[in-house]
Design a protein that fits this description.
four-stranded antiparallel sheet, globular, 0% helix
Length: 118
């Protein structure tokens, strides 16, 4: 079972940038899709971005297109989420998940809190 740990959250102002990291311990199989999700209490989980492990194809949720970029470092078993032009609506617990379908995950990390003040 792959273990996932997220880093990089914090408190920022609207318009700022943050980069989140998701470090995986264990083998990520070539069929995997690594994704970032966010959760706000009282709201449904939202898919933010995903990347296919074998070919780097990326996918984004509509609310973050053009502002967020997902990438990975295969050698470091790490997935990144570069978040630019952050807005208060981006506030939430961000966690990464490993799965085989976009928008879904089989296992996930604990998450890192991102808070954007106006």
């Amino acid at each position: 079972q792959v273990q996932l740990a997220e880093f990089g959250g914090g408190l920022v102002q609207a318009g700022d940038s943050l980069r989140l990291s998701c470090v995986a311990t264990g083998r990520i199989y070539s069929s995997s899709i690594m994704g970032w999700f966010r959760q706000v209490p009282g709201n449904e989980r939202e898919f933010v971005a995903g990347i296919r492990w074998p070919d780097d194809r990326t996918y984004y949720g509509n609310s973050v297109k053009g502002r967020f970029t997902i990438s990975k470092d295969r050698g470091a078993n790490t997935v990144y989420l570069q978040m630019n032009s952050l807005q208060p609506d981006d506030t939430g617990l961000y966690f990464c998940g490993r799965g085989t379908n976009i928008g879904e995950y089989i296992n996930r990390g604990q998450g890192t809190q991102v808070t954007v003040s106006s």
